[in-house]
Amino acid sequence: MMTNRREFLRLSAVAAAAAPALGVRGGAVSAAPEPSAAASVMFSAFPHVQLLGGDSVGIAWVTAVRATGRVTWSQDGWATEHVAVHGEDGLLDANSFNHKAVLRGVDLRKPLQYRVHSRRIGKFDVYGIGYAGDEVSYESVMDAPLPDDGVLSWAMLNDIHDNLKVYDCFLSHLADVRTMCIFNGDVMEDLTYEEKFKRDFLHPFARVSQEYRLPVWFVRGNHDTRGSLARQLRDYVVLQNNHYYGAVTLEGVRFVFVDTGEDKVDCTPVYQGVNDFDGYIARETEWVKREVASREWKTARARIVVQHIPAPLCKDGWEPKLKRLDALNEVWKTANVTLMMGAHLHWWCWSDPWEGRPYPLVVGGGPYLGNPAKHNNATLTKCRLEGRRLSAKVLDQTGKTVVDKEIRV
Ligand SMILES: [Fe+2]
C-alpha cells in the first residue's frame, strides 16, 4: 500500500536491490521519482499511465483527502505546457478522492513529462467552496512507447491474484520493454475494500509506470469482477471509450483487448442474479465483429488479441466451458489473428495453431512462486516485433526462458 513516502521509497529500494538493471533506459538508471513530503501525504496511490490510443494516454491517481485533480504535461522540456482535466460536463474534478485525466495529442515517439496536481478541499458548500492548503504536485516521465528504431516491445503479467511477491520477482525484466505492460486479468482475487485495492492493484500499476516509465493496458479477468468494489473499479482507472475492451494500432500492429468477463454462467447461485455477462459478451462480440471488418484490422501488419480466458487450447484439451464465448472465438477463427495472448489457466504454455484455433496462443502461468518447474507458477511473457520477426518468450520466476517462439509476420 503506497500510503507514505517512506513506503514508496522502501518498495522502490526493494525492487532496486533485486534488480541491478532496474529501469535502465538508454544507459541511464532510472527509478521512481522521489515524492516530496507534501506529495507523500496527499497521494495515497501514485499515478499510473494507461495507454488509450495512438495519440492519447490516461493518467489516474488517488488522494488521501478530498481534493481537486488535474494534469499538466509537456513533450519539449516544459517549453510548451498542456493541461488535461476530467470534467467534460462543465464540472471540473473536485471534492473527490479518485482522479483521472485523458491526455490527447500525445506523440508516442517522444517521452512524456507529466505532473499530477491536487489541492485539498476544505469545505464544499453550495455557495461556499474553500481550499485547505496549497496545491501539491508529483512529477514523472513516461518513456516513448514507440522508440526510434521502430521496434515494438511489450510484456504481459497475468493471474497475480494479490501475490505481490510476483512483482518483486518479475518487474526488473521490464527494463528493456518500451511499448507497454499488459495486465491480462485476475490482478486481484477480489475487490472487497479500498486499501486492499490500492495495495494489490493501483500500487503495482504505479510501480510499472513510475519505476519503469511504462504505460499499462488493463484487461479485466473474472476475479476482477468480484466483490463489493467491483462496480467501482472503473472509477479508479482510465478506460478507452469507457469500456473494458478496446483496440489500438501501434507501428502498424493492431492490438485488440477483450474482456471475457466472469467464468461461470450468470445463473450460478453465488451471483444472486446481479450478473449479465451473457448480454455483455454478446454486445462485445458485435464490437469484435466490427473490429475484424475494419480497415485498421485488415491492413495491420500483425494482429494481436489479448483476452483473459483464451480460445480452446488444443483438440481434446482445455476449452472454455461458457457458451457465450463460443461466438467470440468463432470470430477469431476466420480473422487472420497473428497471436493470441491468454491467461486464466494457471498453466503457462505455447500452443500451435490447430483447426479449432488457426493461430498460435501463448498463455501465462498462475500466481504461485516456489517451484519454477511447475506450469502453474508465475511467469512474465515478453514479445518483441522487429521488422517481420515477432518473438514471444515466457520467463519463469528465475528469469529462465521457458518458451521461445518466433513468428514471421
Ligand atoms: Fe481467471
In short:
This protein is of the alpha+beta class and 409 residues long. It has 8 helices and 23 strands.
Query: What is the count of DSSP helices, taking H or I runs of 4+ residues?
Result: 8
Mean pLDDT: 92
- Low-pLDDT segments, ≥5 res: 1-29
Helix content: 10-25%
Oligomeric form: single chain
* The CATH top-level class label of the largest domain: Alpha Beta
CATH H level of the largest domain: which superfamily? Metallo-dependent phosphatases
Largest sheet: 6 strands, mixed
Number of strands: 23
Bound molecules: fe (ii) ion
Strand content: 25-35%
User: Structural class, from helix and strand content?
Assistant: alpha+beta
Distance between the termini: 42 Å
Radius of gyration: 21 Å
Q: Into how many domains do the coordinates divide? A: 2
- Which strand order do you get reading across the main beta sheet? 14-13-12-21-22-23
The 3D shape can be described as globular
At CATH level 3, the topology of the largest domain is Purple Acid Phosphatase, chain A, domain 2
**Which architecture name of the largest domain does CATH use?**
4-Layer Sandwich
